[in-house]
Amino acid sequence: MTSQPVTAETRTVDRDAPVVLEAKNVSKHFDVHSAFGGGSVIHAVEDASLQLRRGQIVALVGESGSGKTTLARLLAQFYPVTSGEIRLDGEPVDAKLGFGNREFHSRVQLIFQDPFGALNPQKPVRHNLERALKLHHDFAGRAELQGRILQLMERVNLTPAADLVDAYPHQLSGGQRQRLVIARALAVDPEVILADEPISMLDVSIRLDILNLLRKLRDEQDLAMLYITHDIASARYLANAVQVMYAGQTVEGGPTESVIQNPQHPYTQLLLESSPDPETSLDAGAALDLGEPPNLADPPAGCRFHPRCPFAMDICKTTFPPRSQLSADHWTHCWLHAEKPTDTPKTQELGDPS
Ligand SMILES: Nc1ncnc2c1ncn2[C@@H]1O[C@H](COP(=O)(O)OP(=O)(O)OP(=O)(O)O)[C@@H](O)[C@H]1O
């Protein structure tokens, strides 16, 4: 994607668009048991919040292991939160719908990185779409179902649909397979798509086509979307807003151009400086030490970035900063931008006031 030009069409956030799906102060801790006895707790996501609005794409960026997939899976109800809440239309999801609920999954769909792994390799395109369609809709007969399958394929440019409908996944190209996965997600008429690195396993030449398809679906169907990526250039191309995660904590978020042109958290600055795309790299002076991300079985207290941060202060080592609003939509969790408490700081998270 980094070789593709960037355009600025989608870089605004519509604050009037209703929030469909939301993570509110969610944490996820995994208990991990060793084969040799003993165990540990992985603090994969800590007190993270994220809002997905109708007709808007939020890009979730951060290096490997920062908790992006875990946050998406919490939003998709793959597993329960350790604390915090997932809300659909403002109401807590588990109380309203429960896990594995068909109604929830007809509204929220997850698209994975590996299109091949997401499909049934033994079955043709028709079957892969038919199951999803029949699970959520009633059809008067075969002809109606067949019409709907072809229509879905055309919607994602999986064409000529009549020729490809009987093809098996291995007979499709990588891009066609991802189109099929997207078509299957659309089969249930969702309001939210959670796309976890949907282009990272595709050939560079077709990545832009898939991004354009996602953009078209957002615009034509008013879908709310989460787009997880390592690639800042594709986030910039696609997303209205960007949210940055580091070691399970959300550190900065806001309108795409505001975050990319004017990053305020030292980690966002580091991430952008190390981005291979010249359009997104910043002239921030001396190169920062990239260092290693922390072990999430024993993460640093306070702001988890403090061992790598060139501006770390004592308070950063003990207390996670509150959310500071930098402009109407741009915010960060960083003590460089927050008022420090006058009394001795306690070793606890201050939480997210939003
Ligand atoms: N089911 C699980 N059990 C134990 N640990 C897990 C589980 N799922 C994720 N983790 C751990 O949680 C942390 C966050 O992982 P996650 O996959 O969410 O990060 P990510 O930002 O999506 O990474 P990547 O970009 O490489 O996909 C990692 O340390 C990972 O090893």
Core attributes:
354 residues; alpha/beta; Rossmann fold; eight-stranded mixed β-sheet; globular; disordered N terminus; binds adenosine-5'-triphosphate; nucleotide-binding
What do you see in this structure?
The chain is α/β, with parallel strands linked by helices. The protein has one domain (19-30, 41-277, 294-332): Rossmann fold (3-Layer(aba) Sandwich), CATH 3.40.50.300. The chain has twelve helices and twelve strands. It has helices at 68-75, 93-96, 102-107, 115-118, 125-136, 142-155, 161-164, 174-186, 204-221, 232-238, 256-261, 266-273, and strands spanning 19-33, 39-53, 57-61, 83-88, 91-92, 108-111, 192-196, 224-229, 241-246, 249-255, 323-325, 331-333. It has an eight-stranded mixed sheet, with helices on both faces. The chain has a four-stranded antiparallel sheet with strand order 2-1-4-5. 43% of the residues are buried. The protein binds adenosine-5'-triphosphate. Adenosine-5'-triphosphate is lined by residues 30, 32, 42, 44, 62, 64-70, 296. The site of adenosine-5'-triphosphate has 13 residues, from strand 1, strand 2 and helix 1.
